[in-house]
């Protein structure tokens, strides 16, 4: 039975076991069929041009990135404005995820619940996060498939990656654990963005498979309610109940106005609330990205 109101949702959340060595995060999908991967990996042309997208965005708007010192900070800002990146938005607030899952009432939605081990949760200044962030600057032929473990850090591919990392961290030792490149990591970023604060936001940052055009995979054991996880938790949202749930969330202070504090969103929310309802929805996903 799918979720039809907030009470149903809370009842399902109560079934989730919280492990002391793990932390819970959530993500809302407007459609239960959306893929759980970053926007840069949703089209081969995008991932093939990731390094160009990154550089072009900065060279076209350099003043926007004066305060972003690390590649991660730049990626967060690019994500905020809709550029595809290797970040995937998540939140520590399940009601925020529920809001995003209810934005499109034509499809059944879904809440993805992650139980992530603390060892895979890093802060913005983590060396592992720097490694994964700087992969975005590497060309599409970046590949570790045939690199020998005993010579891994001496290869041309890794030397270029190390060079990029040391541009932001001069102290970074010229040694990369090959396993780190294939990880998915949860990142707690600086609360310098009002939208991140309002949405209790964090990110998953994706490494690669054996080559750059293949994303790293989220461990199945992180996914609560997934068929492989053995959990009797149903986090599917009934499409016919989405408008009701949005009204219930509004009464709890979870709405477009509180989650998107920019002026244009405030104006749109007030217009919809007191005058008319616009046909075109705004910001269909967490921060920008939803699918």
List the helices and strands and how they pair.
Blueprint (H helix, E strand, L loop, with lengths): L5 H8 L8 E8 L14 H5 L1 H11 L10 H10 L6 E5 L2 H8 L7 E9 L3 E3 L3 H8 L21 H13 L15 E5 L5 H5 L2 E6 L16 E2 L11 E2 L4 H10 L4 H4 L3 H12 L17
Parallel strand pairs: 4-5
Antiparallel strand pairs: 1-3, 2-6, 3-7, 3-8, 5-6
Helix pairs in contact: 5-9
Care to describe what's here?
With 291 residues, the chain is an alpha+beta fold. The chain has eleven helices and eight strands. It has helices spanning 6-13, 44-48, 50-60, 71-80, 94-101, 127-134, 156-168, 194-198, 242-251, 256-259, 263-274; strands at residues 22-29, 87-91, 109-117, 121-123, 184-188, 201-206, 223-224, 236-237. The strands form two sheets. Strands 1, 3, 7 and 8 form a four-stranded antiparallel β-sheet that branches. Helix 5 (94-101) packs antiparallel against helix 9. Residues 278-288 have low confidence and may be disordered.
Low-pLDDT residue spans: 278-288
Mean of residue pLDDT values: 90
State the shape. globular
Total beta strands: 8
The chain-level structural class is: alpha+beta
Cα-based radius of gyration, to the nearest Å? 20 Å
User: In percent, how helical is the residue content?
Assistant: 25-40%
H-E string: HEHHHEHEEHHEHEEEHHH
The share of residues in extended strands comes to 5-15%
The biggest beta sheet reads: 4 strands, antiparallel
CA distance, first residue to last residue: 23 Å
How many helices does DSSP assign? 11
């Amino acid at each position: 039975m799918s979720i039809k109101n907030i009470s149903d949702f809370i009842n399902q959340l109560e079934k989730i076991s919280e492990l002391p060595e793990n932390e819970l995060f959530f993500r809302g999908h407007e459609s239960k069929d959306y893929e759980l991967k970053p926007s840069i990996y949703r089209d081969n042309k995008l991932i093939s041009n990731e390094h160009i997208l990154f550089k072009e965005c900065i060279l076209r708007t350099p003043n926007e990135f004066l305060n972003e010192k690390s590649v991660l900070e730049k990626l967060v800002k690019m994500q905020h404005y809709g550029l595809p990146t290797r970040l995937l938005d998540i939140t520590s607030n399940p009601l925020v995820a529920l809001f995003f899952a209810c934005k499109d009432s034509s499809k059944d939605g879904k809440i993805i619940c992650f139980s992530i081990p603390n060892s895979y949760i890093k802060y913005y200044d983590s060396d592992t996060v720097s490694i994964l962030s700087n992969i975005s600057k590497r060309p599409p032929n970046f590949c570790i498939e045939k690199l020998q473990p005993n010579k891994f850090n001496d290869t041309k591919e890794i030397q270029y990656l190390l060079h990029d990392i040391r541009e932001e961290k001069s102290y970074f030792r010229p040694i990369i654990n090959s396993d780190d490149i294939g990880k998915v990591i949860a990142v707690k970023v600086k609360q310098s963005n009002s939208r991140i604060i309002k949405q209790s936001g964090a990110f998953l940052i994706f490494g690669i498979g054996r080559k750059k055009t293949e994303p790293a995979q989220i461990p199945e054991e992180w996914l609560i309610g997934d068929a492989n996880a053995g959990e009797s938790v149903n986090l599917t949202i009934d499409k016919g109940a989405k408008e009701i749930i949005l009204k219930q969330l509004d009464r709890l202070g979870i709405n477009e106005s509180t989650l998107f504090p920019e002026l244009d969103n405030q104006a749109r929310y007030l217009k919809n609330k007191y005058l008319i309802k616009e046909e075109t929805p705004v910001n269909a996903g967490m921060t920008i990205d939803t699918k």
